[in-house]
Amino acid sequence: MAAAARSFIIPLGIFQGRPGIEEAIELIRLGEDLQVDRSGMVAGGHDVDIADLLVQISSAVVFLELLKRP
Fold first, then answer.
1. pTM score of the predicted model
2. What is the 3-state secondary structure (H, E, C) of 12-33?
3. If you ran DSSP here, which 8-state letter would residue 49 be given?
4. Which of 6, 2, 9, 7 is nearest to 60 (CA)?
5. Which residues of 33-70 are buried (b: 16+ CB within 10 A; e: fewer)?
6. Could you read off the pLDDT tens digit of each residue along the chain, which spans 70 residues?
7. Which phi-psi region, left, alpha or beta, contains residue 67 (left: φ > 0; alpha: ψ -120 to 50)?
8. Where are the transmembrane segments (predicted)?
9. Could you give the 3-state DSSP secondary structure of residue 1?
């Protein structure tokens, strides 16, 4: 998760239960979204990156939740 998020802090927060997946994606993409607002979205580029990030973070969160079950 740290590699996908390019951060250690956000995945650590996810592991602690805060932020949720959607909020984490927004935090991870904050800089890129600012650039998209200035320059525009590249079809087939930014949207694919968002989908890939969502899959990577969501799958890691599901895996962590499965580990918590008895």
1. 0.81
2. HHHHHCCCCHHHHHHHHCHHHH
3. H
4. 2
5. eeebeeeeeeeeebeeebeebbeebeebbeeeeeeeee
6. 999 999 999 999 988 888 888 999 999 999 888 988 998 888 888 889 889 999 999 999 999 889 888 7
7. alpha
8. none
9. coil
What's the alpha-carbon Rg for the chain, to the nearest Å?
Answer: 13
What 3-state DSSP class applies to 5? helix
Secondary structure letter of residue 44 according to DSSP: T
Give the position of tokens 């979204």: 33
